[in-house]
Design goal:
Oligomer: single chain
CATH architecture of the domain at 437-671: Distorted Sandwich
Number of helices: 17
Radius of gyration: 27 Å
Shape: globular
Strand content: 15-25%
CATH class of the domain at 437-671: Mainly Beta
Largest sheet: 11 strands, antiparallel
Helix content: 25-40%
Length: about 725
Amino acid sequence: MAVTKVALVCQLWRYFGPAWLAYRLGYAARTRTGLLRRQLPAYAWSARPLRSWLRQGVPAEPEAYAAWRQEHGGRFFFQTPPTLTTKGENPDRIAACVEAEDALAGRWRYFSRAVYAVGFPPDWHRNPMTGQRLPAERHWSQTGEAGDIKLVWELSRFSIAYTLVRAYAASRDERYPAAFWALVEDWARHNPPQRGPNWQCGQEAAFRLMAWCFGLHGFADSPHTTPERIVSLAAMIAAHADRIAGNIAYARSQKNNHAISEAVGLWTVGLLFPEFARADRWRNQGRRVLVEETRRQVYADGAYVQHSANYHRLFLHDLLWALRLGEVNGARLPDEVYERFSRATDFLYRLLDPVSGQVPNYGANDGALILPLADGDYADFRPTLQAAHVLIHRTRLFPLGPWDELTCWLFGPGVLPDAPCEPALPGDLTAPEGGCYSLRGRQSWALIRCAHYRDRPAHADQLHVDLWWRGVNIACDAGTYLYSGAPPWNNSLAGTAVHNTVTVDGLDQMTLAGRFLWLDWSRGNVRHVTCSEDGFLAYWEGEHNGYARLPDPATHRRAVIRLGDETWLVLDLLRGQRAHACRLHWLLPDLPYAWDADAGSLVLETPAGPYRAQVGSFQGKGALSLVRADATSARGWRSPTYAHREAALSLALVEQGDTCLFWTLFGPPPSSASSFSHPHEEREPTLTVHGQGWQAQVTLSHPAAAALVRTIRLSGAYENVLELSE
């Protein structure tokens, strides 16, 4: 559905307010007229040497400056890097050393997964996926895009600094600090201040200066860390702080993690480099923005403003760094920030799959991992949660394990053995502001998205269900893949059709008006939540109004039912004033399977055993399809991290009608389901579910009733009745 300019302005005014709209229009004018270039002019490194950034009385000569910093500089997380290897461990087998060796050989890892041969040092302005280069000589406000600019930015985040420091701590191999300094110097040669794409984003500058600070302190004792190099890097860090401070208002207008990250950058420079003439200003500005943005960006239920699991982790990493750095420098941030951080930690923990350590890949995922200080998979959230819990409570969430390294770097290795462990399994999540709800059994659990947005949505994913069983993500979110690529990879995984929900007439639940901009925000509403006294039955029901904007409106209600510990039933009711094409979709992992099209049954052979997904409708006339890795569309794909995609199984059922009623059963064999009676007939629609030694009869209500289901009656090994509506 096309969006007119008038409608666009009206909705921007409605959702973001007149002050925001005026600022963004003014910023666009400053960019077009060149005013922004004059306010933040480009210059050569030699034009602003270190002495131009220093307070009076601080020596600028290399030997004297290095000595001054050793005595008066801010304190870092560690004075000596922690010893992270066991006696006799072979460095060649340590993951950080393997990755460091690959980088030295010119094979760089992008977004923790894809590897490209880009050389050492790399071309800092080249997109390795497309081969295109962005111009390095122009002011950053005049930089275009080559494919997806994140592929250009990724190496300039300098995440390699963390890898090299970790490898050095494990091996004491002097090639690693030599490589760090060679990369810093090469980056400086090819990226003069305010020129080229790597100066375009203040958040990228903040991530880079954080990594440089980590390298500066991690290699402090290496002979390669000479006074001359310390002087050069300090001037580069000051230039980055100046870039951030000069345009942080734009970051704040984005109403997302950019403002938090840029504030952390200013806070960091202000604390660690008190010798800079603007250190107090940068520190105070960073502190103020951190407090204000944390208050605004973390909801009362702990959800994060961007409706994204990975951006939620990015926020926790930012705050882990800022809070801990404040503590070691005697500049503790206000209790309000700690309290919001604690809520955000608890929220993310309640999304954790306790077997795999992963969380649902919901919302935008740009591959960010700004504190890559632990072995293990990119998708493992335990390092972040362990460190966050230690910061807040000085206790551990998990037993000692490979996820502890991040905590060791921030607190020292001695904190973990002394911290008692509190291994409580995550409970059910009810987060109405964040739009996330979970139901948990002992062996399986589900996340449901049902949001009433007060901030910009990331994906059109109302009533999406993520299902986990014994550590396997059975019904999964497709992720993101690319923000900007050739169709169909132009952020297409943000749309409704690839999520585990129902699409009406092939339309998204909201109107897409830009790469990151949804209009006509859909509104989710939870209708019913209950469980039986023995906990064997649990019921959740919600709806959304995403298709109320159609000329012939349609409504979508979904019920999610846990039957016992491992079996799940999902019911979807679509009602309209005329016939619509309603498409039920499920995305499943790419595993060996047995497919019975007649029964709508797919049995996956998972690492934890066989597990069934079965779909059907009470109409019984729909078109059923199973697709893997479609060559011409985004169907049948998932993206566990940015710029990396892998095959998945896409199961869809399409029905036509003014009333469509779907059912989906998940459970280990021999679970199965069968339905009888049509919703237009006098008899109530009923579904029978067969489990291991038990049977459930699910009787539906009249469509106008308070709950979709009237009664759930168990018989056999379990006897139970759950009454839901009159």
